[in-house]
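ESCALATION

Customer reports they have been waiting on this structure for their group meeting. Please prioritize. Original submission:
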Amino acid sequence: MANEHSKDKSHEVVEKLGIGFNKLNNKFVNLLEENQKIKQQYKNHEEKIQEILRTNSELNEKNKEILRTISELNEKHQEILRTNSNLIEENKEFSRINSELKNQLQEKDIQFEKLQQHTSNLEKQRNEESQQIQQLEMMKETLEKNLEILKLNEIDENIIKALKENNKDFSSNFFNKGLEKDLEKPKFYSDIKIVVGLDFGVRYSGFAYSNVIDQNICSNDKWHGEIGQLKTNTVLQYDDEYNNVLLWGAPALVKKPTRRTKSQNNKRSNPVESFSLHLSSLDEIFKPNLPVDYKKAITDYLREIGKVIKETVTVHWPDVDFFKNTFLVITVPAEFSEMSKEIMRACAYNASLIKEKYSTNLQIITEPEAAVMYCMKNLEDQVFAQSNTNVMIVDCGDDIVNLTTHNFMNNHLGEITNKAKDFCGSSFINAEFIKYLRKRLGDKPMDLFRDNNYGQMQYLIQQFCKYCKIPFTGYDSDFIYELDIESTTPVLKQYVTNGKIRNTLEENEWIVEIDFKTMKSMFDPVIQKILHLIKAQLNNTYEICSTMFLVGGFSESKYLQNRIKEEFNGQVNNISVPAQPMAAVSRGAVIYGLESINSNGTNNLENKDNVIPSRVLKFTYGIGLYLDWKEGVDPPSRKTSNGKVFKFSPLVRRGTVVEVDQVFSSSNHRPSLPNQIAMNFKLYRTSEYNAEYCDEPGMELLGELYIDLPDVHLGCNRVVTLGISFDQTVISVFAIYEVTGKKYIIKLLCSEY
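Update from on-call: job pushed to the front of the queue and completed.
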């Protein structure tokens, strides 16, 4: 029993062991299979790794190839950059050479024109000398005949008759030759039938015209379909590419308001204006930035205004050949150089105003010259200036006021003796008007109005000038101007967002009142500058100023006229505003042209063709300056209470060879006191080469130059440059106030230098 039980138990154990072994064996088989799979996977991974390594090796090779290529490209790029840099430098050099060659070519053109004129003068002189030789031959023949008669022992009636015949023939031939010469008129002038004077201004331009026979001068007052204005704006409006002119004159700048105030009404390029300033002597920083070349702008404007000129001439004189029968006189600012005038001529030619670049049908003169001619004509019509006195012409423009003083002798205005200018024209009152609106409406609305509606802003200024600035007399204390924003420039309303300001304007129905006191505050700072300018000019003129002419657009202001008359009636006998002062320059240009034709190509302004090219000075010229007294150098008796001494400071010494208009200058003159408001320079000359003091024997005081010194807040940091130049019979002394560029000039007549 026990054995059976033991057997059963053993059998059970063996069975369990068998089962366990079987499981173990199965697991072992499974492990072997898994191991086989792992080996296979490992083998696969090994193959993949080998493939990856091969691929990586290939990529490395490709990467190295790419790096080599990049390196080569970098080297090529650097080479291109070096080449490009060299090309840029070469281009700059070519541009510089081209510019120099262009300037040289322009100078050669000017020299060639002068040479042509000189050749013409020599030819004329040769003809005159030939004629004089013929006349001398005639005199010789007549004298020989008469001497033969006198040798005769007896003189009867027939001999006396023969003698009279000889004298008669001589007189007839001799004086008729001279008469033929006097009556001879160049072919050019015989072709001219019409004279046109074009006032090409920085802000405004206009023209006048006349037939050479009746000489009835007319000013054009028809612009862009409207009648009444003597000038139009010197402004252009181009297309988006700035190739073609869309609008010019007033329509290009001034835009009347419409009911539509959305932005699409204003989608056009900004107007191009003040482009002629690029021909001036202003520093580049003061010249406007233009989207087109300034020469293109000048040419385009001359072409547009030229169309009006040609149409006007054709309407009045249908049979006139414009290029053959019209003499065009263009005026430019006085500071334009000869090179600037040549550029103007080239622009006029490109604008089809003349047929040939150097056509004699075009003459370019300065605005002061034209103004002089107009005032001379007025003097002929009403002679009230005293002989041997001075006449002052005050040209009040939009930006600049120009003063010129002339000798008045034998009922004619002579050369300019003094001149001065300052930036105090009527546009500065317009600027004060805009400042006032900024105070009332705020800066932001006015900035948005200017940036988005520039044309309407100009229309607003135009209305202010027409109905407020020009009518203002300064006498009527009840004066008031009501600016109706809603009807004048309704678009401005949308920019006023400040609640307080907007409520106030709405309560006033969008009307801004400008009263008498406000108008005076706009005018007075500008007028005060003009009065100071005139006062300084009168102080620099030692002869009596018997007459003062006010010309230019700003001179139409009754308030300006009244202030000048009130201030200077005691110093000037007659202060006059000629008819159409705004058109004085263009009408004067016509008079210049007519006088040129009537005098066979000469005019009564100063002729500079016969100026002596150089001369040797006989005197030493200089100024008196207060310098620091130096012990052992300056005598104690000359020492002033503040430790200074008044000494002679030479500008140019005796024996110096000077060219005509060559300038000798002295810079860095400053006021002695920080609150000084004026400076006075005394010009001396002496026959001594070295001189120290202004009261030495032989020292001569020639004149004094008085200048204003504004900007007191700058103290002694107000620099003045002084200069002197010599013309044929005139010494010019000038002072430039470097802070503003304002220039003062006196001219002194001298028989010897």
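Sent to customer with the following note: The first strand starts at residue 194 and ends at 200.
Escalation resolved.
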